[in-house]
Please model this.
Amino acid sequence: MPYKIAIASGKGGTGKTSVSVSMQHFIRKQFTNQVQLIDCDVEEPNDILFFPNAKKKNSKIITQRVPKIDKNQCNFCKKCADYCEFNAISIIPSIKMAKVNSSLCHSCGACLVACEQSAIKETEQPIGLMNFYHEKNHINLIEGELKIGSAMQTLVIKEVKKQASKQSQIILYDAPPGTSCPVVETISDVDFIILVSEPTPFGLHDLKLMVELLKELQKPYSVIINKAGIGNRDIYTYLKQEQIEILGEIPFDQEYATNYANGSLLKTIPQKISKEFEIITDKLIKRVYA
Amino acid sequence: MMEMTILSGKGGTGKTSITAALSGLVQSAVLCDNDVDAADLHLILHPDIIEEHAFASGWKAEIDTSKCKRCDICLSHCRFDAIHTNAAEKLVINPFQCEGCRLCERICPEQAIRSEQYTNNYWYVSNTRFGTLVHAKMGPGEENSGKLVTQVRKKAKEIALTNQKEWIINDGPPGIGCAAIASLTGTDLALIVIEPSKSSLHDADRLIKLIESFKIPVFALINKFDLNLELSQSIANYLKTKNIPLVAKIPFDKAMVHAMINKQTIVEYQPNSNISKEIKKLWHKIQLSTHTIDLHPTI
Ligand code: SF4
Ligand code: SF4
Ligand code: SF4
Ligand code: SF4
Model:
């Protein structure tokens, strides 16, 4: 079984994507080629921007099962609407209306069980894509992309995660921001979580929310402080108090920030940053084989 | 009354710092933090909470193992893989995976399953130095379905109407999912904060596609524009093709972080800085344009 690591952050903009992409780069350099990166930030997938030479190998459509009511069979008993906890079904017998609102439907299947007239069939509706990117003949990156207007990010994440190769030794998940269900879905089966934070009041606040979640989920984690040097020391005090391990500190660096902006992050990595990532990777590998 | 939502595609572009700065400039406003998942606006506004309300999220199912006969009907019907066997071979439900569809409860022949409604979310009405703030805190791992966002916006609107305020300023959530959709539905204006990076432009593009489907007037600003002038120029060009007015170009300045550490808005911290001037100008432009755009066109 591959060892699964999620890179999460509580909120966006702390450098989760640059850490994810760099981690893959350094694991490959120092340890194994069998490392896949999965972009689970399906609302705004960005990892691919840092692989200018990668080619899209193929894409698959991800669908959701949405029920459809056959009005010739339906007797408008409303049982399906009663079963639907998400208010996705409206039945109005007087005008013979029986409608499913696909943007509210969670594809739970309850209405199918409810209907005694076999009036409900499921249809497949697209909610996103998974894209497979190749670099030098192996799949480097798998990306989930939520269809604009769809609200089914959790399902898209679930499907994309299934695509990782079982032959990989390490799988990295770039998690979505926040602490709600898409994050929970991403980290539900991982062995370890890297939290990326920055030493500012916003960074600290969002880190605390994330720690609260991970305590509930009882998952092992440690923290990378990104943009070290900006902001203040409050985050260090907090981590010490809570006895949370600092996996590494990536110093704020103007050149690195510019490379990030251009998408040429991996082309030239400043010495002091690559050194830090090498140490982090070593620590991680030890953990994988602990 | 007008309602403006500030969004950015992804977090970390400085959206909240800018929302906070605008909060201090807009006279007669109700402020509203729609980023209920990782609310940060309160760190600058330090609100005095005057009302606290619990907000029911969905249901979570639970199995009474003493009644369960292990027919496994529930197990085969749950589409969210939320039902598992534990070490003692009993069936248990993982609350983080349960979507609360209540199907298992309805089909269990032994009536061994009960669902309970979780109230793990809270929303608040607070006083701040810039007026009323409506904000929320979501329990960790909850579903950010947009319902809580809709609730805080509803309250903000109520307060704005009762107190005859001219503006509601929403600090929006990141992304383009349920929370962003709930944050945009029915607002009058959107302001997008973009950074000069490829990823920020990529995110903004997806967000703009979403906003276009709502047909809401959009403004944009580039934050830290001088970090990469070339990319800032391509963002400006992109905005032109989309007919979106670029209302401000805000320079990079560590003062932004220092203001945050001081729990102040940049306009309070350095009122005469270039950033503050740009933000004042931006607010002026938005105010002016609201006199000319038709906010509620009849179709
Ligand atoms: S599948 Fe579930 S959510 Fe969808 S309409 Fe049926 S009962 Fe409602
Ligand atoms: S349960 Fe079946 S028959 Fe009854 S209203 Fe729904 S679709 Fe029609
Ligand atoms: S359906 Fe009821 S009795 Fe059957 S396994 Fe599930 S909880 Fe037990
Ligand atoms: S309520 Fe729905 S999601 Fe939860 S355990 Fe039961 S069937 Fe599964």
Summary: The mean pLDDT of chain A is 92. Chain A has two domains: 3-62+128-289, 71-118. Chain A has nine helices and eleven strands.
